[in-house]
Amino acid sequence: MFDTDRTAGTQVAARSNRPPMMEIRGLDLWYGAKQALIGVDFDLYGSEILAFIGPSGCGKTTALKCLNRMHDGTRDLRMSGRITMHGQDIHAPEVDPPLHRRRFGWVAQKPNPFPMSIWHNVAYGAQIHGLTRDRADLEAHVEDCLRRAHLWDEVKDILHKAQGTDLSGGQQQRLCIARALSTKPEVLLMDEPTGSIDPIATAGIEELMDTLRPDHSIVIVTHSMMQARRIADRVAYFHLGRLLEIGATEQVFTAARSPEARRFIAGQFG
Length: 270
Ligand SMILES: Nc1ncnc2c1ncn2[C@@H]1O[C@H](COP(=O)(O)OP(=O)(O)OP(=O)(O)O)[C@@H](O)[C@H]1O
Ligand SMILES: [Mg+2]
What we know:
Helix content is 36%, strand content 24%. With 270 residues, it is an alpha/beta fold.
């Protein structure tokens, strides 16, 4: 469970009394003959930012994709273990995969807006899932998503005139976040979301994550130890397919139990 001896100790301690939103237990995953995840266990709580860290190829992206069933349909992939969300097995026959996936927003390393107008980039998800009542409601929803992604003021006059791909890198990434919010997800999965943008845009995305935290759980993969330390409530350290350590951010950064995590955090490998 959580450690309480940190600045935000009260908040973290309060969280530990709540049941997890997602429970991941004994997760094994093979790509063909290669085992990429080995007995991975962790919980994800509501309103928290959990950072996945670890050397390249240790299974961070693979673990992230298990949460929203993004591996469904991948050939030669085998998985075992149990993942529950609000107590329900996400692989139960009665779970509709597209509906499950809609509860998650995905943000990739490289901003990848659709080749359509800014407005349509955001409206699309809500439209295909029928999440708004009428045109006025959809207009308001698009504005709300763009405001929450801290992009509205920069694009409000060019919503239909400019393509998503016309924006700067940092703006494109905020557009992708607005697009991810469009389906009203509970969880945001972010795979190195600031890996290809500059420090100012990175600061903007981190601030944005902070404002989204009260209403979302966020799992972020990052290669920046400073970023993990700045924004995450908890950190999970992956190593050769195993989740070796998970704990409150300051505890992992100052007193990791596993020698591998300590060496990685100290910059001695990876
Ligand atoms: N589609 C795939 N087919 C076969 N092997 C794969 C596939 N995707 C990932 N792998 C392998 O699984 C292991 C874990 O990969 P994964 O992408 O999860 O690592 P990662 O921790 O996200 O790395 P990085 O930090 O470089 O993004 C690696 O050895 C990788 O080569
Ligand atoms: Mg990865």
